[in-house]
Amino acid sequence: MVNFFSVEFSIRYVKITGSDRYLVLVRDITERKEKEKELREFKEKIDLILSEEGYNFWDWDIKTGKIRFTSNILSDRDFKKVYSSREWFERIHPDDYKNLMDGYDMCLTGMIDKYDVELQVKNYNGEYRWFMEVGKIFEFDEKKRPLRINGLHIEITRLKKLNEELGKNKEFFKSIFDNTPDAIFLLQNDKIIDCNKVAEKMFYLSKREIVGKTPYYFSTPFQNDGSNSEENAKFHIERCLKNKKEIFNWTHRKADGTSFESEIYFSIFDEKKI
């Protein structure tokens, strides 16, 4: 059975007693090669994981203009690990190009230590995807001029879409809040933190006069069943927190002292889920 192993040759010319000789050194580097292979395979796995999660490490050699990427974050069919800076910049959305250049300039001139910018990058089929780019100078020449910038790309396309949907949902909620014919109070820790225009008209008070008060502040001291309004209101609030909603009848009082009957609908509202 034949076993193969890796070796490293080192040949040097020497002259011994007038004769030409060559000194050949042979070193077994099998263990080193195995470690290098393990390290390479580990790096490939890490790059694959980061790529699937939308991460990419990049290295920009300013002198040559070459930018090296660790992963195919744009899912390009003709992905190259090395691009020219011009090839990369041509992929940047026109609306984001200036912000990116400003980040580069401030970093290269020493105004800032590192930069970060959100930008849209075009993939091979012309679609733009959102990334957060973070960069920092890691190498200088003897005159302290930047030679190399290293950084990270993090894909935030899904986050941008979620924020866009969140904005639409908030606009929809605000439309309902402002245009419904019913009075709406928003409560937090038993205190009113917001109200709509209908509530202002209903109670003859401005929002500034309403916000910060408790809901039972605008009630008669006692309800029609003889119960204390403050205790009864707290009871219904507790039931709402437990059951997610609560519907009941209530006697309110306006700023001029007149009372009126109303139907109250309590519901849990989570702004984060809008």
What's this model, at a glance?
With 274 residues, the chain is an alpha+beta fold.
Descriptive report:
It contains seven helices and twelve strands. The protein has 274 residues and is of the alpha+beta class.
Structural class determined from secondary elements:
alpha+beta
How far apart, in Å, are the first and last alpha carbons?
A: 70 Å
Main CATH class of the largest domain: Alpha Beta
Please outline the major beta sheet: 6 strands, antiparallel
Average pLDDT, all residues: 83
The CATH homologous superfamily of the largest domain is called: PAS domain
Which terms summarize this structure?
elongated, 6-stranded antiparallel beta sheet, 12 strands, 7 helices, Beta-Lactamase, 274 residues, alpha+beta
